[in-house]
Amino acid sequence: MWRRLTATEGGRGLLMVSPPFFYALLLMAVPLGAIVLFSFWTQDFMALDTTFTLDNYREVSEKPIYRALLERSLYVSACVTAVTVILAFPVAYFVSFHVRPERKSLWLFLITIPFWTSYLIRVFLWKVILGYNGVINTGLINVGLIDEPLTFILYNVNAVIITLAHAFAPFAILPIFVALEKIDRSLLEASQDLGESKVMTFFRVTLPLAMPGVVAAVLIVFIPTIGDYVTPELMGGAGGKLIANMIQTQFLALNNAPLGAALAVVAMVCVTVIALVFVLLNRRWLKGRS
Amino acid sequence: MTALITLEGVNKHYGDYHALRDIDLTINEGEFFSLLGPSGCGKTTLLRTIAGFESVSSGLVAILGQDMAGIPANLRPTNMVFQSYAIFPHLSVAENVAFGLRKRPDVNKKTAVADALAMVGLVGYGDRAAHALSGGQRQRVALARALILKPKVLLLDEPLSALDKKMREQMQVELIKLQRQVGITFILVTHDQEEALVMSDRIAVMFEGRIGQLADAETLYRRPRNRQVAEFIGKMNFLQADVASVSERIDLHVAGLGAVSIDIEQAPERVDTGAAVVGIRPETLSIIFDGEMTTQKLVDGVVDEVVYYGDMTYYDVRIAGIDKPLNIAMKNVIGRPVLEVGAATRVAWDARALVLLK
Q1: Domain range spanning residue A285?
Q2: Phi, psi of B97 (to 5 degrees)
Q3: What is the ipTM of this complex?
């Protein structure tokens, strides 16, 4: 058996992928399967009723709270994605086009600085910055621009968007940077040679060629933000809670794992559909690239 | 012939590096002009200066009498075929060709693109994706994309260097035909001297940021102005010489060949009496085989090396008094044997083929 496996190219390949494969199977596929299974069961006080039922999904679709939370989650994720990608693009562009080649790796290194501290600490830092007596409010009051602290920047959806956008910025910068790096600079000269100004060259050549990077950035930011529950928990206040917080509540506080599982499955299906749309878009942009 | 591009005292510095040194150059309308030189000689920099991708450190670049200082590439009446062709990978062939037409609403896009593709022999390729093209086809798209805008000058940056030998020779002929057909000035940058000789009306040979010689192909080949040009263009044998007198004609003594009298025209550089160098092309020398007659002067020698090329045989022949064997190119005509190394032979030469250099 062992000899058969090591003798052929295919066998050696199988051997090499099997440890990560079993690891993924154990830690991802099995829990995922369990969640899907749970979502068809019901909680009967302390015991699980394992008869197959669609009751959980019926409840998710009928109760307006779940729908509202899911919509808010999608809205927040969309905002975070848009803000992050739009702000990341100029940074990536600057590093790719205006930083000397030998300095580029230094710049990328600096961009990863936020990751040097834990995610939780960064979220708390934003609290300090955005808070009622926080850096922004005291700063603006001392300058004299406002008379009383701004309240729309903490414990609501805005605060969640600001914090998440900052947290995911490097994830958006890197794929866009890579896409920009791959653009042959003679294409930009060719565009100018053919009569286009620098601005039009950006829109006709640079941006279309950077689109695979932009789509990748959108996916990388959008997918994890939907499931994030730390930031909305700490920054969202009462009105800023998202679907992930509800799933957590169902599982841990309300002892209704089946309903939480159903919510998780619904959220996952939403993300999958949106991600697939973007993957198809990416295919379209990638079509015709050599 | 009217001057289209004028360069006066053009200098270009990159930090300490002096890329272009006092370039004076006039390129005429409708001319096929080549910038020839080894890599790093500044020929591409000069081309990019005309295109507007490089600014000059000092000097004047004028196109049609208009000073181009401060005018960006997109506003100049020039178009370029890039060395990498720079075909937009996200656009189809037709979209690539039509790229520059956005600002020309008076042009009917469809027919213009069809005409341009027909001109470069790519009829029916419009819908192809750019990445599905071969090297030769990419080059044709790049040509069509530039020519569709009817520029005053087409700049070609080593356009044939990425093609294989057969394709390159075919494209050389096509480019010449195309240039005659459209009547646009072509400026070609190349390091391939054969390519420059075949294609150009005039050639500027560049070394280290300077123009070594500016002439038509024949003059460049037959009367190279200095040793650097003579060495770069074709093969050349160099012999030590001693100039005895300079008047209407030049009398000199050439190592291994003896006393010679040549026309003053054969000394493109001003030569004084004393030590000098004589250049002679391999194909102007010939080996006289047994039974062959010649009226030319003869000198005895011994075959040192034989290189057989099929249509030609190149001999290195050692001659008394000459330190390096003479390289001689012989056509392989019927009945003529290929000599062996060590064979004694006679070499015929003609004083009219000599070039006297410093």
Answers
A1: 65-289
A2: -65, -35
A3: 0.85
Q: Give this prediction's pTM.
A: 0.83
Question: For residue A109, what is the domain's CATH number?
Answer: 1.10.3720.10
Determine whether B109 is exposed, middle or buried from the number of CB atoms within 10 Å of its CB (0-12, 13-18, 19+).
middle
According to CATH, the superfamily of the domain at B3-222 is P-loop containing nucleotide triphosphate hydrolases (3.40.50.300)
**What residues does each domain of chain B span?**
3-222, 237-277, 280-357
Q: Does domain B280-357 have CATH number 2.40.50.140?
A: yes
Q: Which of B90, B95, B139, B157 to mutate to test the interface with A (most CBs of A within 10 A)?
A: B90
Measured CA distances, B140 to A233, B92, B122, B150, B202 (Å): 61, 14, 8, 15, 24
Cα–Cα distance, B198 to B309 (Å, whole number): 21
Per the structure, the count of domains in chain A is: 1
Partner A contacted by B74 (CB < 8 A):
yes
Q: pLDDT tens across B293-346, in order?
A: 888 889 999 999 999 998 999 999 999 889 899 999 999 888 888 888 999 999
pLDDT in tens, A152-194: 888 888 999 999 999 999 999 999 999 999 999 999 999 999 9
Each residue's pLDDT tens digit, B160-173 = 988 888 888 999 99
Partner residue facing A197 (CB), from B74, B82, B129: B74
In A, what residues contact B, Cβ < 8 A? 184, 186-187, 189-197, 200, 204-205, 208-209, 285, 287-290
Residue A115 domain-assigned (yes or no): yes
